[in-house]
Amino acid sequence: MAVMTTPVCAQEAPQAAEASKFTAFLDKEFEQELAFRPQLATRLGSKQGMDRLDDISAAGQLKLLEWRRGSVARMKAQFDRAKLPPAAQASYDMWALELDRAELTYRFRSYQPPFYSFLYSVHSQLPDFLINTHVVTDAADMKAYIARLRAIGPTLDVAIAESRQADAKGIRAPKFEIERVISGSRQMVSGQPFDASGPDSPLWADVKAKVGKLQTAGKVTPTEAEALMAEARTALLGLKAPYGRVVAWAEADLPKAPSGKVGAVSLPGGAAWYAAALKL
């Protein structure tokens, strides 16, 4: 038995060492990816980039793509797939596949403008992210939350610009989605603190709940809680104008929005986009 197992052990030892090195490599690369994707970091429970939102601009997407190209190139230069055990080979293939998917996503980015998704339209997705995903356990977390509130306005402006570029190519959101953008955007800036009375707006209700929990838990003093509330209120009021610009864009786009039978194949070049989407 010893004679039979020795060659196997001799083969497995280098593979295990190489797999360990490869795992460390991927861990390091993934940490770099999270620096580009702070919202993903938050979803994974990390506080890396907790005061930032993802860069959804074309330039930001290209920067992430170029990093991913470099990451896969580094992987192929440093590791021979054939020398890795099966599980590590699968991870190797998946990391390379992520680049293929990223290339397609960037190539067809005009077909996925920030306001065109029924589930992930940026006007509602960002508030939902802050309310349901950005966890606040101390004052620093709340400060980061407020920083993200301030970042919503510039992100909405980028979303408008990206959507206009898609419109210029004849890629338009359906009428029902534009109508949702209008009503949803108005809802985000309705109620207190935007209005003198009435129910709290969604984000203001969340701010009050999160700061209230900090104070109840003794994480902040009443004075500190009051200061956080005032800072968040100012940041929230700063969203009135950006959401107004979203509504203005959407109302101007509404008469041109298609209705009835809509879908990928109804768009210019939509068949190619649909074929690519099946791979994403």
Short description:
The protein has helices at 2-36, 38-43, 58-78, 86-107, 122-132, 139-168, 175-188, 202-216, 222-237, 240-253, 270-277.
Q: What Rg do the Cα atoms give?
A: 24 Å
Q: Which strand-content bin applies to the residues?
A: under 5%
Number of strands: 0
Structural class, by secondary structure, is: mainly alpha
Describe what this molecule looks like in 3D.
With about 280 residues, this protein is an all-alpha fold. Helix content is about 70%, strand content about 0%.
Secondary-structure topology with pairs:
Elements: H1 2-36, H2 38-43, H3 58-78, H4 86-107, H5 122-132, H6 139-168, H7 175-188, H8 202-216, H9 222-237, H10 240-253, H11 270-277
Helix pairs in contact: 1-3, 3-4, 5-6, 6-9, 6-10, 7-10, 8-9
Overview features:
single chain, 280 residues, 11 helices, mainly alpha
